[in-house]
Amino acid sequence: MTDKQIYQIGLTMINGVGDILARHLLQTLGDAEAVFAEKQRLLEKVPGIGSTIAAEIKRPEILQRAEKELAFIGKNHISCYFLTDTNYPVRLRECPDAPILFYFKGNTNLDATRIISIVGTRNATEYGRTLTESLIKDLAKAIPDLLVVSGLAYGIDICAHRSALHNQLPTIGVLAHGLDRIYPSSHRNTAVEMLESGGLLTDFPSGTEPDRPNFLWRNRIVAGMSDCTIVVESAEKGGSLVTADIAFSYGRDVYSFPGRVGDSHSKGCNNLIRQNKAGLITSADDLLSALCWDAQATAAPVQTELFFSDTDVPAPEQNPVLAIMRTRNEIHINELALALEMPVHQLSTLLFELEINGKIKALPGNIYRLS
């Protein structure tokens, strides 16, 4: 634990500053400590801040709360991941509204080779539970190092976690509250077991109650952590459909099991398939085929090095982004994306990191130039 983490945690505790605005502050001022060190009158001039939020940033209670949270996570052996950390999960960092900071307690690789999210209704039927158990059992045979992500809620979520554990797969529960509690309490034993193979993850500090809006907000992490999201069973409306929509917006794969026509427990799944937001699967083989995953795939993922240290900066000709920018005085993000044949959401992450490291400068209108 370091003093800089006080400022990083503090950045998440400012009223009116969410993940996207926090990213903007980092881009403008350099790091979390600089945000709190900046003079109030200058903070007010930062686009999107203004006098009210600037005053919030200067409240001494913010860093006092951050100090308490730092003590809490230190005492409970909880890891803290900040957006600019090199070990921040690659898949999650690609998401435009990824948490600027999150907490994790457990024992697994957050950048595992293969990661899936499984979600569904809290009022699962026997059909839904059987599908979940069968899917995970067969996936465990084919991909023995698969990581399963869900939300530790009633129904399909807890069935996915328990099935993963039963089949010796690591599994992560994304929580809608702080790590000082488990909700629902009836899932505590499963949560404890998950700490040995998997873990618990949240972007909420201790003391946060499991309020309804938090469950919807945490769904972006469930979607963003994984290669694909699978909806097993869902009514016409529900949180699992929100997760699926978020995953779809990220450009991630979404899959769903179909249900009987007119079955209220499957309306949501059938609608996802009908709207072409989800691919139809009926088995683990369908999923493996759709994802082009080879059975028994155990090779470690190749970690793309996104951050550069001051002493080990790749030459521009070794970095495709910088190499292209060397040939242009200024370039729009869309032109750069076309030249690199890269999705804009993924390119935005790379540009953000290059800007944080002082290699490029962002101009109004999504235009960039070398520093």
From TrEMBL:
Belongs to the DprA/Smf family. It holds the Pfam family WHD_DprA. The lineage of its organism: Bacteria, Pseudomonadati, Bacteroidota, Bacteroidia, Bacteroidales. InterPro entries: DprA, DprA_WH, DrpA_SLOG, RuvA_2-like, WH-like_DNA-bd_sf. Residues 82-290 form the Smf/DprA SLOG domain. Residues 314-366 form the DprA winged helix domain. SUPFAM superfamilies: MCP/YpsA-like, RuvA domain 2-like. This is DNA-protecting protein DprA. PANTHER family: PROTEIN SMF.
